Amino acid sequence: MGHGGGGALSAELVEHVFAPAFGGPVLSALGDSATVRLGGARLAFSTDSFVVRPLFFPGGCIGDLAVNGTVNDLAMSGARAAYLSCGFILEEGVEVAAVARIAEALGAAARTAGVEVATGDTKVVEAGHGDGVYINTSGIGLIPDGVDIRPQRAVPGDVVIVSGPVGEHGVAIMSVREGLEFGAAVESDCAALGGLVDAMLAATRDLHVLRDPTRGGLAAALNEIAAAASVGVVVQERAVPVPPAVANACAILGLDPWYVANEGKLVAFVPREHADAVLAAMRAHPLGAGAAVIGECVEAHPGMVVARTALGGTRIVDLPLGEQLPRIC
Q1: What is the rounded distance in angstroms from the CA atom of residue 100 to the CA atom of residue 76?
Q2: Beta bridge mates, 314
Q3: HEC profile for 112-124?
Q4: Cβ count near 266 (within 10 Å)
Q5: Which residues form the PurM-like C-terminal domain (predicted)?
Q6: Other CB atoms within 10 A of residue 319 CB
Q7: Does any domain span residue 226?
Q8: DSSP per position, 215-272
Q9: Domain co-membership, 129 together with 171
Q10: Which residues pair with 267 in a beta bridge?
């Protein structure tokens, strides 16, 4: 299970098994989506599979997740999603009414994101060989001229901004899965981030890096960017917004909210001269109202993320080995 968690084990699987087998310069970039040229157009192309358990959770369901997860991957290249494919793998015995609810939620999420489901596929597997419903979505979108957003563009001096509170999706899943109550309701932050990215690009097209911190959470996203660009990242621990209910839940469960998955947040690496304008644009958008500057890129300790603690010390923020909460997306 750890190999599917978005941490060090996932990275090893990609590096030693998939990348050598598939090869190719496009894949080697290993971004949230691939940037490809087709005719005269520059496209972002991404695919994702969703195996979340339970199928329905506070703030959404696997249908919303399947749309938003893929359109957000495209948005992290600066692209606005245009078309999606959708594949359903159904387990024998799943109620048709549940499949209908999921399909309706998926369609509504697609319309909200401004993307069309253009093609699809359905397969059914025997009882005991699935978990109700699995969904795969692939998406394509156009990247505007003058936009070059990728992990390798992070440079010392960049300001690191997160679009809002972290950890909500993973805790919402756990609350339903384990029947736990944490004193306050926690809902998934599942949302399509294309409009927020458009607002940021309107402030400046010189965004260096965008990443949605899904599996492995904020810590994994920062480590992946630091490694890709060979830069150090310093995060101010107090600056990272963590909702009280998430903090309480993580304390009870022995989890670190920095490693808990999100489905409606992004991390941005922005040139310092544009940081104030980008932050203001984010805070003016509903999905960025809680945006905060949490750190910066530095020349020291390339490839490593460190946190400045409230007591003035520092700690290393490692890439997670596997996944604290399996089957969260």
Answers
A1: 30
A2: 308
A3: HHCCEEEEEEEEE
A4: 27
A5: 156-301
A6: 20
A7: yes
A8: TTHHHHHHHHHHHHHT-EEEEEGGGS---HHHHHHHHHHT--GGGS--SS--EEEE-H
A9: no
A10: 162, 211
Concatenate the DSSP letters of all residues of 57-104 into one string.
ETTEEHHHHHHHHHHHHHHTTTPEEEEEEEEEEEETT--HHHHHHHHH
- Total tally of structural domains belonging to the chain: 2
Chain segment 90-108, per-residue pLDDT in tens: 999 999 999 999 999 999 9
Structure tokens at 217: 């959470």
Q: Which tokens sit at 109? A: 């999420």
Reduced to 3 states (helix: H, G, I; strand: E, B; else coil), residue 167 is coil
Residue 289 structure tokens: 């109202």
Residues written for the chain: 329
| 202-238 pLDDT, tens digit each | 999 999 999 999 989 999 999 999 999 999 999 999 9
Structure tokens at 97: 């009414």
Query: Model-level pTM?
Result: 0.91
Secondary structure class of 42 (helix, strand, coil) = strand
Contact between 63 and 136 (Cβ < 8 Å):
no
Give dist(CA 315, CA 105) in Å, integer.
42
Integer Cα distance of 130 and 310 in angstroms:
45
Q: How far apart are CA 319 and CA 136, in angstroms?
A: 26
pLDDT lower than 50: segments of the chain: none
**Does 156 lie in the same domain as 245?**
yes
